[in-house]
Amino acid sequence: MKVKDGSEVVLMLAGCSAWAAVNLFRGFTSASVPLIPLFVLLGLCVNSLLFPILFCCSLVGLISTALIPWVVLVSGLLACTAGRTMKIRVTGFISVAATLWLIPVSLSIPVVILAAALVFISNHRLRYSLLPAGFIVSAIFFGLPNSLITQPAVAGSTIAEGILTYSIPELNTLRPEVLLPAPCDGPWAVWVAIEAGGVRDSIPMLAIRLGEDMLVLPSGTDTLCFTMVPGDTLAITLLRDFRPFNHSVIHATAGGERL
Description:
Blueprint: H1 7-26, H2 35-44, H3 51-63, H4 68-82, H5 86-102, E1 105-106, H6 109-120, H7 124-141, E2 146-147, E3 153-154, E4 156-160, E5 163-167, E6 177-181, E7 188-197, E8 206-210, E9 213-217, E10 220-228, E11 233-238, E12 249-258
Parallel strand pairs: 3-6
Antiparallel strand pairs: 1-2, 4-5, 5-12, 6-11, 7-10, 7-12, 8-9, 8-11
Helix pairs in contact: 1-2, 2-3, 2-5, 3-4, 4-5, 4-6, 4-7, 5-6, 6-7
């Protein structure tokens, strides 16, 4: 059963109204502007199988500002691929272009090229084949899009019976730095075990910094010891950018005892 005529405009206006209300209470940010073409897509696809996906993506985008780039990119690329009309595919391309123009996302050119190619290919089977193939080629040779503004991760820590234990996430090109703050009382003897790999050379791969002192290390396995006092922060930083056929990764564990 098809939705009655005029429902497309109603959905577009409802989505834009929800967007305006969210910006009114949460504060305006240019990062939310790409949601507008998403709501246009929602109206254009009201009678298609894309509608449930676009509807869920629009709700996620309204709820979480941090997820807006990804839900709009997913929606736009799906519209470019599965859109039955040129109008839907062009609107999908506009949503992709608006996301990458207004939000700092790296490695965006391959995604724009892929979206543009999907718009002008009339053969739907070729579009369905090109989307995964384009992502695979982009991931291998360029890496996947990610935020340019990368905040350092902060390692969690626990102290039990005078023993300090850090919980350190994996470091890679999407999360290149982690901070290990010292406990709030007393001096501590801290050890850090590093296992770095995924590269094919001996060029320095990571840096460990404590105050003004910094140690640069190549890939491999190392164990280091430090003395930390309240206010100190130990930083582990990956120095490599993305390169084709490389997967730079650092696994670290750390702990210590109170002196």
